[in-house]
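Lecture notes, continued. The same structure-token format from the folding unit now serves as the input rather than the output. Read the line below as a description of shape only.
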């Protein structure tokens, strides 16, 4: 059985759609998912990249695109009252729900739907308090251990060269984005094409422009 590590941030509509689509995309395969919340803003900062919603035309396109994808996949999606928003409270709550900082699917589902269904303010203090009471976390979401675990998840993701959310890591390989789910399935099925690809060697292809480090 393969273990898939799912790096996610509740702020991402693509992460929400990928979370909902994952069981259908990998139906019939033997796998286990470990969910690791990461602060997408930290990944973007590390790679010196603007967030998608920080580029106005891109933001507008993404919002159109995810709504089209949601209706195509029959997944309910309502944008929160404001987006982007500060997701740290939700990320820390997810981590606090497990002693090892690894929330289960129910917790992640609850938090994703808190953001992406109903159209309310995802970062509202009272809603977050109500959510905390409902989930009864094992740790203090505001405590230092939870903050340290969130940072550890982010550091681990960066070490694996994860640069965005959603990302799926398996056997040292990282598959990025909702649209990578068919590729992930192909790998898990043992597609011989992957044996012909120099996965790590791809990074050595020369670039004609200076790359940021």
């Amino acid at each position: 059985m393969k273990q898939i590590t799912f790096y996610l941030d509740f702020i991402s509509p693509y992460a929400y759609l990928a979370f909902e689509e994952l069981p259908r995309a990998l139906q019939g395969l033997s796998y286990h998912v470990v969910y690791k919340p990461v602060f997408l803003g930290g990944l973007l900062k590390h790679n010196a990249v603007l967030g998608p919603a920080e580029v106005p035309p891109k933001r507008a396109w993404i919002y159109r695109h995810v709504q089209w994808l949601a209706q195509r996949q029959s997944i309910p999606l309502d944008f929160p009252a404001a987006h982007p928003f500060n997701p740290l409270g939700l990320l820390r709550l997810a981590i606090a729900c497990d002693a090892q900082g690894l929330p289960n699917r129910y917790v992640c589902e609850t938090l994703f739907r808190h953001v992406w269904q109903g159209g309310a303010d995802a970062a509202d203090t009272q809603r977050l308090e109500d959510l905390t009471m409902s989930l009864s976390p094992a740790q203090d979401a505001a405590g230092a251990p939870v903050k340290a675990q969130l940072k550890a998840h982010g550091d681990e993701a960066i070490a694996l060269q994860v640069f965005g959310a959603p990302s799926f890591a398996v056997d040292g390989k990282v598959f990025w984005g909702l649209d990578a789910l068919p590729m992930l399935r192909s790998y898990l099925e043992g597609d011989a094409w992957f044996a012909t690809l120099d996965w790590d060697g791809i990074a050595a292809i020369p670039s004609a422009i200076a790359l940021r480090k």
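Point for the exam: Residues 2-204 form a domain with the Glutaredoxin fold (CATH 3.40.30.10).
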